[in-house]
Amino acid sequence: MRIGLIVNPVAGLGGAAGLKGSDGTEVQREALARGATARAGERAAAAVRALLAARPDATVVTVPGAMGEAAARAGGAEPELAALAPGEPSSAGDTRAAVRALAAVDVLLFAGGDGTARDVLDAGPGVPVLGIPAGVKVYSGCFAVGPAAAGLAAAEFAGSTTEAEVVDLDEQAYREGRVSPRLYGTLTVPAARVRLSGRKTGSTTAAPTTVEGIAREVVARMRPGVRYILGPGSTTRAVGRALGSEGTLLGVDVVADGVPIGIDVSERALLDLVDGHEVAAVVSVIGGQGFVLGRGNQQISPRVLARVHELTVLATREKLAALGGRPLLADTGDPATDARLGGYVRVVTGYRESVPYRIVPASEESVG
Amino acid sequence: MSATVESFAKLPIEAKPPLRRFHQARWDEPIIFELSSPGRRGIGVPEAGVPAVELPAAVRRQAPPALPEMSQLHVLRHYVRLSQETLGVDVNIAVGQGTCTMKYSPKVNDRFVSDTRIAELHPAQPEDSVQGVLEIYWRMERMLAEISGLHRVSLQPNSGSAAIYTNIAMIRAYHASRGEGEQRDQVITTMFSHPSNAACAKLAGYEVITLMPDAEGHPDIEALRAAVGPRTAALMITNPEDTGIYNPRIAEFVELVHGVGGLACYDQANANGILGITRAAEAGFDLCHFNLHKTFSTPHMCGGPAAGASGVAEKLVPFLPGPTVEFDGERYFLDADRPQSIGKVRPYLGVTQNVVRAYAWIMALGAEGLRQVAETAVLNNNYLQHKILQIRGASAPWGRRRLEQVRYSWEELYEETGVHSEDIGVRAADFGVHYWTSHHPYLVPEPFTLEPTESYSKEDLDEYAAILAHVAEEARTDPEFVKGAPYNSTVHKIDPTCLDDPEQWAPTWRAYVRKHLS
Predict the structure, then answer these.
(1) Which residues in chain A are contacts of B226 at CB distance < 8 A?
(2) Which of A94, B44, B123, B200 is deepest in the core (most CB within 10 A)?
(3) Where are the transmembrane segments (chain B) (predicted)?
(4) pLDDT above 80 (res A216)
(5) Which of A158, A317, A357 sits opposite B441 (nearest CB)?
C-alpha cells in the first residue's frame, strides 16, 4: 500500500496568532512575528504513526523537506521522495505540484486547512484524498476528525469512496467578523464511517445512498410546469443527476418538466427563465454555519426569491445534527426578504423523509 | 488429611484489585455452516418398522436443505463457545445498553415456561384443551390495558418493532375506514424517539417527518405546529425520549395532532421510568406499545422473538390483529370474525413463552411492585448520573433531571484527548462490561447512553462508573492505548463499513456465500 503525504508547513499558523486563517504570505509573516509555531508537521507525523501502527508495510511517498519528509520521518516512516524542490517557505503552487507528482498512490493524505484543500482540489488529484486537520479553518467535509483518524482511515482504505465538499471562508471577511463560507468543489475521499469530519462536531457521515435518496425525493415531488431553481452543492447536483443531466456543482441551474432549461445561470437569466411561471427553489446548506441563501448562491437574489412560491432545503440528517441546534440562516442582503423567509422550512433529509427546521435572518443570529 | 485442609486455609489470598482483571474467551470459532461435515448426524434415526411411504412429488424437496450436518456434541460446543464470546445480561453489569432496559430476567420464570404444560403445547391445539394459556393471554391483556389506561391490547406482535408496525397498520386501516387513507400520508416522529417508529411508518408507506429537539432538549413544539395538517396520519413518539428527558408538554403534542384529525401513538420502549406513575391514556394517546422484553423483564432473545404488545383506545378495537382472545364468563375462545381487523401479524397467538414470563413477573410484583420498579429505576439512574458527572470530560447536555436513563456526552474528553466515545466503549469491554453510544446520527456529540434499571445494586453502579472513570483517565494519559483497545476481548478491531454497505452486508449465511464466496 502506497500512501502519499503532503504537509502545508504554514497551515494553522494564523490560528494561534489570532489571525483567523493563514492565507497569504503577509499573514504568515505576521503570525511568525507574533511568535506562532506551525503545528501541521507534528499533526502529519501523528497521522503517519497511526498509519504505520495499523499497516506497518505501508510505503509513505512524500515531498523532500518540510512539505512531508520531515513529518514522515518523525512519524517513523522511511519515505520515498518525489523529485520536487519546493520553495522555502512553500507556496500554494508547491502544493499543487506535489499533488500532481504524487499521482501513483492509493490514498493521498494532506495536512492543512480549507485553503490547502482548495489547492489540492485545484490540482485535480486522480486518487482518493483525505485531509489531516491542521489548519485554522477546517469546515470542509474532506478532513478526518483528527490526525490519528486520518492515518487509520488511510490504512483501512479498501477502495470504497464517497464525495466530500471543499468549502472555504473568505478570510478577510472572517477577520471582520463575517462568516462567509463558499463551496469550491468536491474531492473523492475514502468512505470510512465515523472518521470523516462532521465539520465542527464529531458526528457520523451519511452513507452516499442518503444523497441519492434526497435527490429521488425531490424528483418524485416535481410537478409539471413548475420551474425548479437548483442551487449550488453536491446534494442539489445529485437532483440534476437523478434527472439524467450533469448540471453544475458551483452554479445555479433551472429545471422544468424534468429537463434542464438553464445551466450555471446569472440572476438576470434566472429572472427571465422564471418569469410568468410557478417557481420552486431547492437549495442546500453551505458550510458548517447553516447558510442556505446568500452564500455562494447570490444569483438566487431577493428579486428572484420574490417569485419563489416554495423553498425546499436539502440536507442529510447528519448535516442538521452538525448544526448543534443552531438555525438555518438566510442572508440575501435584503432584510425584508430575510424576514419573510423566517420560520420553518421543509428540509428534505431522504426519500420520503423531511425535517421542519427553523430558518432565521442571519442578522438575528450571531455566528462565528 | 486435616493438616492439608488447614494449610490450604492458611494460603494467603491476594486482595482483588479495584477493577476486574477480566479476560473474555477467544475461541476463533467458525460459523456453524463451516463446521458441517457431510453425513454427520446428531441423531441416528432407526429404521421404521413399517414399509416406507412415497411422499407426493408436490411436498418433496428437489434438493436437500442446506443445513449444517453435525453431531450433538459439536452443536453444543459451538453454541456454548459463542455464548462465552458475548457480554450477555447474565454476566455483565448491563447498564451500558441504554434504551434497551437490560434488567434481570428472573430464572424462576424460565421454570414456568420449561414446564411441560407450557413447553409441550402445540399452537394448533383445540381451544378446549388450552384454556389455561388462553386465560394467561386474557389476563395479561387486561393487566396491560390497566397499565396503559387503554381499552384493549394485542399480544400477537413478535417484538417491540413488530408492535410498532402493528400500530401503524391499525392507524392506516383506521384512516382508510374513514375514507382518508389517501389524504393522510404523513407520520410525524421525533429525533430522539425510538427509530423503529420512523422505520415502521416508512415501511407502511408513509412519508416521515422528524422533529428536532429545541434548546431545552424537548421535541420542538413549534416545528410540530408547522408540520401538522390534513396530511397528518399520526404522531409516533417516545416519552421519555432516548435522552431520558420527559416531555412535560406531551398532552399538548397529542392535542395538536388530534386537532387536525391525526392519531397519537405512544412508543413505550422507555416505560420503565413511568410504570404506575402515568399512563398513555392520561396524555390522550390512541395507541401505545410495550416491549415485554424491556419493561416486563423477559429475555431480549438476541433481537427476536422477544415479545411486543399493542394497546388501543376503544375506537381502534375493530382494527386489532386477529384472532383475538375472548372470554364469555365461562370459557376462553378465539374470535376470528373481525371484518375490520388488520389480520394476523404473526402465526398463532404470540410468543407464548415470553407472555408467560412477563405475566409471572407482573403477578409477582403487583401494582405496588410495578410502581416500585419505576421509582427504583429512576433512583438508580439519579445515582449513576451523579457518579458519571463527577468524571472529568463527561457531561449530560441540557443539564436537566432525567427519568430512567441519560444520554451523556464525552465531547469535552474528546476535545482534550481525541478519544471517541466508540473507543471508550471498546476499552470498557476489556473490563467485562457492555457500552453503547447512540442511534445515528449523533445529535449529542460523542454520545453514550446508560440505563441502570431497577436490577442493579449500588456496588454494581459504583463498579460501572469506576470503569468509565478509569478509561477516561487512560484517555488523558495514553490516548493511543485506549484507541488500540480491546486487549482482553474475543475479537480485536472490526471493520464497521460492512454494516452500511449493501454490497457487503450479509445477515444470513446464504447472503454471505452469494456476496463474498461466489
Answers:
(1) 343-344, 356
(2) B200
(3) none
(4) yes
(5) A317
